[in-house]
Every structure is written in C-alpha cells, then in structure tokens.
C-alpha cells in the first residue's frame, strides 16, 4: 500500500480524515484506491479487504 493510514476519500491533514467532513461529493477521492488501505478513515478499501481475505484463506 502507498499509505496505510491516510484515507483515500476525505479531507484534513495529516490523514485525510475529518469527522465533521466525511467522504462525500464535497471531498476529494484518491486516483487509485487499490494503493490505499483506508477508504474514509473508518472503512477499509476493497484492496485491503482482499488482502485480509487472502491471508485468512491461504494462511
């Protein structure tokens, strides 16, 4: 992952997360979510869930 802590969708530094301004049409979204583990400061990205599932299934 390019960034494990910075959210792909949101606003605010240093982690692109602001509880008062969650991911919405008014916030920015990263160009490639597969390079991020964190989607919006609360939820993970599809790629992060895929990575976790692969670990559970394949050890």
TrEMBL record:
Keyword Nucleus recorded: no
The keyword Glycoprotein belongs to this UniProt entry's keyword annotation: yes
UniProt cross-references to InterPro entries, sorted A to Z: GDSL, SGNH_hydro_sf
Protein keywords: Glycoprotein
One Pfam family recorded for the sequence: Lipase_GDSL
A molecular function GO annotation: hydrolase activity, acting on ester bonds
Similarity field: Belongs to the 'GDSL' lipolytic enzyme family.
Full protein name: GDSL esterase/lipase
């Amino acid at each position: 992952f390019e960034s494990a802590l910075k959210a792909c969708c949101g606003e605010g530094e240093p982690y692109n997360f602001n509880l008062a301004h969650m991911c919405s049409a008014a916030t920015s979204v990263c160009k490639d979510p597969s390079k991020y583990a964190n989607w919006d400061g609360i939820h993970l990205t599809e790629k992060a869930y895929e990575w976790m599932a692969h670990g559970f299934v394949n050890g």
